[in-house]
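Continuing from the previous page of notes. For each protein in this section, the sequence appears first, followed by its structure tokens. Read the first protein now.
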Amino acid sequence: MVILTRVGISQPWYFNNLYNPNNTWSAGLSITSHPSGYMACALAGDQYNFYQISIIEIQNDGTLINYINYGQYGQDYWPGENSSFKNDGQNNFYLYGSIDYLDSNITKGLFLYFDSFGDSIFSREYESIHTNGLVGRNCNMTADYGFILTGEEYIDTSNNYDFCIIRIDPLGNEIWRKYLGTASWDIPLSIIQTPDLGYAIGGLTYSGAQITYDPLIIKTDSLGELEWMLNLGGEYKDDKAIVCNTSDSCIMVLTAFADSMYTPEHPYARVNLVKIDLEGNILWNKKYGLSSPKNYISNIISLDNGYFIACGSVKYSAFLNPVGWIFYFNSNADSIWYREYLYYPEDPSYGLNYLYDVSIAADNGFVAVGQAFTLSPPNNIQKMWVLKVDSAGCEIPNCWVGIEENDGMEAWEHGGLELWPNPARGIVDCRWSIVDFRGDFSLMIYDMYGREMMEISVPENEREIQFDVGNFPGGLYLVVVKDGGKIIGSAKLVINR
């Protein structure tokens, strides 16, 4: 299945593609914008099935331009966690991952710095100073154009891990190294430099009488000294914590809160956003949607407008396990839209569709990366999955967020429906220029999940009506005018809170 659409020069690109340039297997973990499109980073196998890092260049329309592999026979190269591969702002790229030296059972952290073509500018390896294992997970650029790296290091032979953060200069030389964590097994998965020039690290800790996951956030000062530590976990197996900065100098945390168990290994969970100030105070803690089985988060990034985009995966049905999701919300964590996506459908192929990273594109849409495959042949080989949608999360022009597409629906503003003010907080004026407006008409409002929020009967020949959204949560809504079961007019409505 390949979807490739472009409507006019100024319209966004859309595609839904798989990539496996080595003809082995691949799983996309990171993606970011590039002057001619996108640069993606994947974990892939070589011809001997040793692991390697693949840097893949893709055009705006989804066409594969080039790819470069980093690896060596007898060694496994790991590209770090989701979103470890980043743009430095000058269209060079960097990542922090690992090398497993299989013959000596040693793991070292690996920092790679690439030019705009994916060719290496320099690389550095970092060794454990305690045992034989330092696993590189993620990184970020600092204000002085150096880098901050995070991973876990075996501290002793009991296999306990601690967060390891390493500060390096612009050439990769180590400046300092710190170890932070609990008495349990701690794994860091994201790191940012905060506005006070300290650092926030998000990850997970294994704790409890039974093995459970708790999201863990650690805040340090500019020298890596601990300021505070926060465990956001509950009774059940929650997901990891991923951190990003907010426009008002706070920390946004993405996790998934578990309220029960689906199986002994996987919970029922809800997407969970937590805003924390730099002193470690929780400003708010919000949960979204219904509790769903195997609902896992992958990444969150902050955007220039103060909004956020996040992605993950969730079990959809017995035969579609999972589908990927993307969630767009404003600075107050009001939902703008949430959509689920797939490459492989359900029965009989048992589709598995994972999204691991998401980034904003040049057309203000979004591009996401992950992997897709099926449990049964012939599509049971893992392949990198890249999905390009527009700013409303649509996979095709003028899709309808939150409800199924119907005959006669051709555009968001189909039928001349006008809403004012938009965005709105209270009373909304709705006007339309539909021809032959006679008969049994109704105005319907749907939220982003497709749930009906309001229905208003429209008197015959009426051309204007008011409704009150003062009690609606903030987010993206769809307003439609129906003639019986046929939708003849529509518009999107944004509610701000």
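Done with the first. The second protein uses the same format. Note its length before scrolling.
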Amino acid sequence: MTNEGGSAHGVEPHGESLRRALYWLDERIRENPALDRVKLVGEASMRHDLGPEEEEFLLLHWARGA
């Protein structure tokens, strides 16, 4: 049995959650460029179980860096 990330034991390589979150964020913005990027980062953080450092990275480099 695999989890949503495709890993059989729920353990992912370092940075895999962040990569998945970035992919998810890019897809959302591609579908609707008017979406609030800061709110999307919060949702991505919860969906992909990101830590505070990863969320801050996305806020600084993805949400505000656009």
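What the second structure shows: Residues 36-66 form one domain. The longest helix spans residues 16-31. We return to this in next week's lecture.
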